[in-house]
Every structure is written in structure tokens, then in C-alpha cells.
Amino acid sequence: MIPYPNWLDAGDNAWQLVAATLVGLMSIPGIAILYGGLVQRKWVVNTMFMAFTGFSLVLVGWVLWEFKMGFGEPLNSDWPGILGAFVGRPGTIVGSASEQAQAYIPLVNGNDLMPSFHFPQSTLAYFHFAFAAITPLLFMGSVVGRMNIRAWLLFVPLWSTLVYTVNAFLLWGGGWWAAKGALDYSGGYVIHLAAGTSGFVAAAVIGPRLARDRAHGVPNNLPMVAVGAGILWLGWNGFNGGDMYFGGHNAAAAVLNTNLCTAVALLTWVVWDMFAGPQRKPTFLGSVNGMIVGLVAITPAAGFVTGIGAIYIGIIASSLVWLAWNYLSKVPPFNKVDDALGVVYTHGIAGLAGGMLVGIFADPAMAVYLNKDGSTAWSTSGWLYGNLDQLWKQAGAAGTVIVYDAVMTFLILRAIGLFVKLRAPDEVLEGGDLAVHDEEAYPAETAVTGLAPEPVAAAAVARKAPEKEPAGDTDSG
User: What is the mean pLDDT of residues 193-203?
Assistant: First the structure.
């Protein structure tokens, strides 16, 4: 007997499963507690609930029909233009033959655009599920604090089916923009530009939070934010380290570049806050925003640029998003839409910036795949290395994702709104978690023990009052 087929490499398979798990941890508990700490205390349970249900909804749809829409055969290759390479044919991957077969993407492996995979289809499907799952959880940050939970449970599978799979097929599944040469190493467009665009449109369609909630939207728990942000940062090692599908030299470079860009972006945001911010003070939340911008901006470029390129991307992207956060947010349409956690800035604009910057800094010396003699078999180059066309390809792919995702998000929400109210009633929004779930993150003592708390002043007086001596003792002397 042998433990696995000859085409399987235990190292590659183990790394892909670890990378997928790291990405999954970014969703639960990463996003759940990051966003849970950022919202008002009355919305903590609702936010975590939306994260866990979104994660579950995507997984079911992903294995039953979505994975092949993103990474299978084209729906109809005879259709003209981009329509012939727009989305894959839906189909399930559940079954012994499909789950244990060698991983294969027809338009990628079939056209010899990358080496054969050395792990099963189930590994590839689970790895990309983790990416599909985190995307709606990211734009959840735009609509927290007012979205009807029934509408959320309908919106996630519909958006994942009709929007995410198209983005994935166009750029990763060998579709139109992949064939044209557009670059998206690990999801700057497929995930983050999509999340920023859809979150912004969803926030506009659903409407704002209560005016009082917007005026007092302070985070309820900064330590929770720190834990969630830390999981997000280190989980990104799987995000960008796994997307070349091989545990080799390019994965290692991608991980190093990811961390380098993130550190530089964090520090850049802090410097902006200290010398140009409204209070001229460094803030922890500002540093978290800088961290997220760095992680997002390097995502489309991680294995295509050098460490120097990663540093430039961190500085440029963090500065652009800081300026947008502080100035663009004050002009229409941005000041008209209640994007609760600023997803359009830290993911949408950061993803767009990273996608365009890889068209500038992509270095042909960064070998993605090798020949047997060790020479470079495939790499890519940006404008700095004489390839101006790469910028146009990046712009075209970004425009497609923005327009398609915005229109489809609008249509899906309008369709759901015919049957379910998109926004919870104002009396429910006043109550928050208790009104929606009959649960709360920080219950009062009466809810936990069933006993009314003892007044502090009365308890102190009772502890300090001297006990009276028995009358007989006084007379005994």
C-alpha cells in the first residue's frame, strides 16, 4: 500500500491546507472579533453572528455549485468577447472522484499557464473557499448596525454566486482578464476591490444607521480589536503565501513582502496622524487602519515585486488611503453614504491602489516559475521595467470589477427588498442585540445572576460598621 497517489506532494498539500486554515482564521475569529470590537456594544453579538453565518452560507454554496463557476469550464465559450470567458459552468465537487482527484483548473493547467498541482481538488476547493468566505465578511463592515438579518442570510449566497464567482473566474480561473495578462496575485481586485465596491453600494441602498448611533459610534473593546487585527496580519501569511499553490521560493518571497509592506504602511499612517491628523496624535485605530491598508495593497503584488517594491507600495497606498479617509470622505458621494467601518477606503481604495501599483513595480527578476535548469520560466514586469501595457490591463480589470460588482450588488439587494425589508425597523435598531437575538455581549449582573446588584455605598457602610457588644459583657467588669 502507498499513502497517496504518485502525483501528490505531501509538502505542497500540507502547506495549502495550512494556508487555507490561516485564511479561514482571518474570518472566524479574526473578522468576527475585529469588527465585534469596533462596533457599538449593543451590536457585538449581531456582528459576530453575521460573520459566522456568512462563513457557513458560502461554504455550502461553494462545494455544491460555486467552485466550478469560479474555476471550472467556461459557461459557454462560443459567446462573443468577454461573455465567452466570464464565468464557469456550475456544478458540485462533492463526491469521492472529484474530492480525491488531482487539482485542475481547465483554462489554466489545460493551457500550460502554470505547473501541475501536487494536491487534490478538495485542497484547492477548500483553499479558495476561505477566500470566497472572507469577502462578504469584509463588506459586512459597511452595513453593520442596521441590516435586517433575514436580508443578510439571503444576500450572502446570492452575492457569492452571482458576483464573487465572476470576479474569480475573470482573474484566477483563466477567464477574460487572466488571458489578457491582468495581475492579481492574491485578491486585491477579486476580494478587496470587490468588498469595497459592494459594501459602499450596499450601505447606500440599505440606508444609514440611526443618527444617534452614527454620532456615538465609538469602539466598545479595543483589546478585541487588537486580537482580531493580529490574527488578520499573521493569517495573511496564508493568504499571500498560498496563492502560488506551491510551497516554494515564490511563496516565501510573498510572505516576506506582505509583512514588510504592512509594517511600512502602518508606520506611514501613524506619521500622517502625528503630523497632519485632526488631533496631531498617534492613535491605535489609525495604526490598525494602516496595517489593513498595507495587507490589502500588497495582496495583488506580493510575489511579483521585490522588497523595495513592497516598501514603495506600503508608503504610497497608506498615504493615498489616509488622504481619502480624511478628505475624500467629506465630499459627495462619500459623505452621503454611511459606510460604518470605512470598508470602501481600507479595502476598496487600497485594493485598487495595490492593483495599479503592481502594474508599475512588478519586477521581471522575481521568478514565479522555473525551468528545470533553474532559469526563469515565467515572471512579469511593470511600467518601471518598460511594460506600460500592464498598467492598462490593470485599469481595465479594475473597471470591470467596479462596474459589474456595483450594478449586481444594487440589483440583488433590490430583488431581495421585494420580499424582505433590507433595513431593520428603528425600534429594533434602538435595542440592538437584545432586540434581534435576545442576547448581549456584556449582560448586566441581573441578567447573569438573577439578583439585583448591591449598592456600592450601602455595601461599604455595612462592611465598616462595628459590631455591637452584648449588653451583659458591658456590666461584667
Answer: 98
